[in-house]
Structures are given as C-alpha cells and as structure tokens.
Design a protein that fits this description.
By secondary structure, the chain is α+β, with helices and mostly antiparallel strands. The chain contains four helices and eight strands.
C-alpha cells in the first residue's frame, strides 16, 4: 500500500495518511530501534535528534512510501502503531537507517532480518553514526 508521510515523529516512527488524505496514524519501522527523544522527565538518548534527522532526510514529510507487513510479525505494537517495512522507490528505509548507523537492529526474526543484520554489522564495524557518537 502506498501512503504519504505527513510527519517524522522520531528515528523509527512516522505518521502517514492515505493518498486521499485519510489519516492512518503512526507507523513503527520494523526491525530497527532508534535512540529515544526526550520524554517527560527523561533526557533524550545519545544520537536521538540525529536519528530523527536521518529519517527526515530519507522520507521528508509528504513523500510517498510503500508500506509492507511482515508475515510473521503482528500488525500493531503495544502503543497501537502499525508495524511495517517502509520503502521509498527501491530503498528499504530501515535498512538505510541501519547502514547509516542512525538506528540499532531491533531483535527478533523478520523476513528481512539477514539484510538488516548485515547493514547493522557494517555500520558498527565502520563506527558510523551512533556507533561513534555514543
């Protein structure tokens, strides 16, 4: 399903709407865990703002993305966010975030797990992004 990104919430969550303008809510990118932004009395994690900036560069609000579910994954997380792969053209957004060192691999089996593991390992070895900063 193709949708429009209307906001980048943090390094692993976006808000989307259908092509006819119906809000579909928040989407959590499968397979990655980006550093947390500040919440209430807790300070932001190291690289949290950079992770959101990297995701904005990949998605810039109002870009069309393809959402794809993982057959082995549940539909929504405990916060009600859709759990999906996001693609812009032929770019897997989560894999790009891992390759840039803007997120860590979220544990668990996924259809795209091997590619995600490889991207994360290369970023760690290169000390890219958060692997050098944090």
């Amino acid at each position: 399903m193709s949708v429009e990104v209307v906001a980048v919430i943090d390094g692993d969550t976006v808000r989307v709407e259908s092509l006819d303008g119906i809000g579909l809510g928040r989407v959590r990118l499968l397979g990655i865990d980006a550093p947390e932004l500040a919440h209430e009395e807790e300070a932001a994690d190291c690289f949290a703002h950079d992770a959101r900036r990297h995701l904005r560069q990949l998605l810039c609000p109002c870009v069309l993305v393809k959402l794809t579910a993982d057959a082995g994954e549940r539909d929504r997380d405990v916060y009600g966010r859709l759990l999906r792969y996001l693609e812009v053209g032929d770019v897997d957004v989560a894999e790009a975030m891992l390759a840039q060192g803007a997120a860590r691999r979220y544990p668990g089996p996924l259809e795209r797990g091997r590619a995600y593991d490889d991207a994360a390992a290369m970023a760690r070895a290169a000390k890219a992004g958060l692997h050098a900063a944090c």
